[in-house]
Amino acid sequence: MTGEIKVADWTAVAARIRAHSPFLARQMDRFPAVTDLLALGDYDAALAAAHAIPAPDDGIARSLRLRKGALSLVTAAADLSGAWGLDRVSQTLSDFADQALEEALMAAFAERYPGEEPKGFVVLALGKHGSRELNYSSDIDPILLYDPTTLPHGEREDPADAAVRIGRRVSELLNARDGDGYVFRVDLRLRPTPEATPIALPVEAAIGYYESMALGWEQAAFIRARPAAGDLALGDYFMQQIRPFVWRRSLDFGAIDAITDISRRIRDHYAQGQAFGPGYDLKRGRGGIREVEFFAQVHQLIRGGRDPALRSGNTRHALKALAVAGVFDDEVARRLDEAYVLFRTIEHRLQMVEDRQTHELPKTAEAMDNVARLHGLEDGAALLDLLRPHVVWVGANYDQLTPAEKEESLFHDEERLAGQLAEMGFTDTDAPVARIARWRTGTVRALRSTASREALEELLPGLMRTLAAAPDPVRALNRLDDLIGRLPSAINFFKLLAARPGLAELMAELLSHAPTLADALGRRAELLDGLIDTSAFDPPPPVEQLAEQFAQLEKGEDYQALLDRVRQRVNDRRFALGAQIIRGGDPLEAGRGYSRVAEAAIEALASATVKEFEAAHGKVPGGEMVILALGRLGGGVLTHASDLDLVYLFTGGFLTESDGARPLGATQYFNRLGQRITNALSVQTAAGPLYEVDTRLRPSGAQGLLAVSLDSFAKYQREEAWPWEHLALTRARPLFGSAKARAALGAILAETLERPRDFEALARDAVKMRGDIARHKPPAGELDVKLAPGGLVDLEFLVHVTQFQHNMAFDPDLRVALEQLVAAGHLPGDLVAAHDLFTRFLIVWRLVSPKSTEPPLATQPVVARACGVESWDALLESYAQARQRVGEAWAALAAPYVEEDDAGSR
């Protein structure tokens, strides 16, 4: 038998109530009309009747107590009969708590300030009330907040005194007990420092507390908080302001430690309720309700800052969302949910007996049998048999969150430290000994606090062992030292690594091989957060889905917040792609991923910028912004460090004027808009940098207008463009604008590229251009895959000139164009492999050797593996052969068109 019993006959349910629940039996006698409706099986009508009990003459408190009694009877009967499940029962009780708070608050205002609107005062529900999961007999744990500027108060009364008096009166109305019982026990101790603060707090002071001083357990408590009564707009404002405290993008393992520490303290404090059997505490016991809730909350805190879908305060909803997101298996979620429903159902049975807020199974056999039979079981032994497997499984599952025993270490024995490090694998122990000593002195800013040094000591043995096993231990250690030196505080960083040992290994790899990623980690150590599950190593989704993710904002956030959000999300993705490459992913796939990320950033930021601009200047009738990508972005394959080559165009006529409050002519409008979009993509904000944007490939170059009309663009390409500009258009691709506008631009590109032309003149210009590049921008060395003779630039010129020679294969993806030319017999087939080798080489090179110098010995195998060969020597051989093939093909094509001045630059 599970917690959700089958619908039972009312006669049998009533008999169980009479035999096993004195409290409910009294309610049946007190509310005969409600009982009659229950006997008919009409639970909705019985609920309506409970809410409609006439208000007595002696005030709101007694009215609420009577309605609460009748409501208790209805919810218990519907629960015991199986007509309502746990969710319906808990939500009905929670909704009544909202209603009771609202009516008590209205009464308090009416008593003190007749005729005044009850504004400037809000009741926040926390705990099970906040998540609409109230127990059958439960406290409510509200926090009372007020706005001193809008709260009604007497002429000589301080708003703080007025708020306290209102709060005290609300509490009195709900807490008062007489022969009719009580409404709710009100516990106000969850407010900040309850021993020193008044029961009602000014909203701005509360915001300041949660932003700067709150404890980890308070962060977890607010997962289930919501405005429940009073000035709900004020409550929404407060919740919006503290959202960054609750849902942090970077992992806060201090808060997670606080939750697990609470759990350990509960297990210790309620030791007598830990052993399963009579007296077991269903709420606080090992494997009980709290451990289901805490298990969900820990995972919510880890991931909810980045995924709003995981933020539900409701335990069952949270478990389902976490499973859908792949945080843990569906089977784990199912078993936790099944256990939670059963535990909460039996908890309700315990409380139904005499309306006591108890969570402990009875200690006597007689009382245990009574609860079991109220639930419909034979005896207490059957109840224990029902609960036992769930309690055991939940406890074992929750133990996974408890840190393993700390490693015994002699790291504090300075005399033995060097020897320990040598045993770990450090061949040179002087550097790590010196680094550890410096960290321990507290001279590094991030390690000045005792808490941060304690976090370091907990991590240190495992961290040094990981660094010792790194491909280049000293380089990794030095970069880690640089990273720590840039952090404002190292606590979260160390706790993250301690909680996820696999991340330390990955970090050591990144620090050993990828200075670009090491620098990014130094700016934002929380970039490691994105690698806590394997989904970070999946390719980025399609551009449309990415753009939607990038553009997501929380309630109340504006355009400036979007600039930060996009930077965070883009850089998370770029960092993950770099980690994929270092971990053995295909650089070509990563390059396409980099491109999709950039396109999505353009879509998200350009759309938002257009909207902002239209709010001030209106729209240009018949006109819209269109963005054309060229270069590597146009070709759809970027590196980690690529800039964005963009051209801004617009549809419609340039004589039109916008229709907003501050109208602008079309040309001025779209030129200003283009500059705004460039700024949105390139300006560094508090969240860091995004992309460098290069607009010099626009018509007339840097001297021309930033944005021109499509008609002007088409005319320029027909009449004025230089041959090199047509070469650049072979990599052009419309990225932003309506489908119609993109199609119109695509038609202009096709017409420009495919029109008849003097090929020999174009080829001479192309050969001269390549010579100019060789003279003015020489390669940094033989390994400069882009600029070295026979390298990627030569291959690009070879493909583009061949495209015009045969007037075909004008695909912006260089590899696709090359394959089409090879298939047509215009270029040798081995150039495709050369293209792939060069492109992989360039993408991984930008990560491991940004200055195009030979990488460290330990990194050379990483580069070779990324390029698909077995060793560094084999890579150098393949690279040389590919350069020779490309150089020979380019020289053969260029030979007839080389002018005397360019002969030496081939």
From TrEMBL:
Q: Does the keyword Transmembrane helix apply?
A: no
What range(s) does the PII-uridylyltransferase/Glutamine-synthetase adenylyltransferase domain occupy?
Answer: 265-381, 775-891
CDD domains with a match to the protein in the record: NT_GlnE_GlnD_like (cd05401)
Instruction: Enumerate the InterPro entries for this protein.
Output: GlnE, GlnE_rpt_dom, NT_sf, PII_UdlTrfase/GS_AdlTrfase
What is any one GO biological process for this UniProt entry?
regulation of glutamine family amino acid metabolic process
What are the alphabetically sorted keywords of the record?
ATP-binding, Ligase, Magnesium, Multifunctional enzyme, Nucleotide-binding, Nucleotidyltransferase, Transferase
Q: Name one GO molecular function term.
A: [glutamate-ammonia-ligase] adenylyltransferase activity
**Domain called Glutamate-ammonia ligase adenylyltransferase repeated: residue spans:** 15-238, 507-744
One CC-aspect GO term: cytosol
Q: Which Gene3D superfamilies does this entry report, sorted A to Z?
A: 1.20.120.1510, Beta Polymerase, domain 2, Nucleotidyltransferases domain 2
Q: What is the official name of this protein in its record? A: Glutamate-ammonia ligase adenylyltransferase
Q: Which organism is it from?
A: Sphingobium herbicidovorans (strain ATCC 700291 / DSM 11019 / CCUG 56400 / KCTC 2939 / LMG 18315 / NBRC 16415 / MH)
Q: What is the lineage of its organism?
A: Bacteria, Pseudomonadati, Pseudomonadota, Alphaproteobacteria, Sphingomonadales
